[in-house]
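Give me the 3D structure for PF06296 family protein.
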Amino acid sequence: MTIPYSIGIIVLLKRIFIHLSDFDLFWKKAGLEDEELKKLQEFLLENPKYGPVIKGSNGIRKIRWKKKGIGKSGGVRVFYLDIEEFSVLFLITLLEKNDKENLSKKELVVLAELVTSLKELIQSKRVQHEKRK
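Predicted structure for PF06296 family protein (133 residues):
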């Protein structure tokens, strides 16, 4: 009988999720629970390009997400940014469907600038990390 030298578990990390403070605030305000957040993250992990890119947002996507026991019609709209090359997904903000249908043009301009800053920050961190090697 052969005994293996070692037994290991390989975990393949597909994305790092980063929540912006507005997202967490509005998630709680909408009455959504941690279990629902886990389901959203699992869905986005498997389908990071699911939502359409919003024009003028510099890459932000939007999906409709149902509230437990209510369905998509009474749910929320989740705005997120997936940066595939760095395996990072930002949960940016959300809107409750009964409060507001979409982001305003002014909000989109601000978020597009935020996306530019986030991409630059991630790129600079990668460069710093590679210089240490």
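The chain is about 40% helix and 25% strand. Let me know if you want a second pass.
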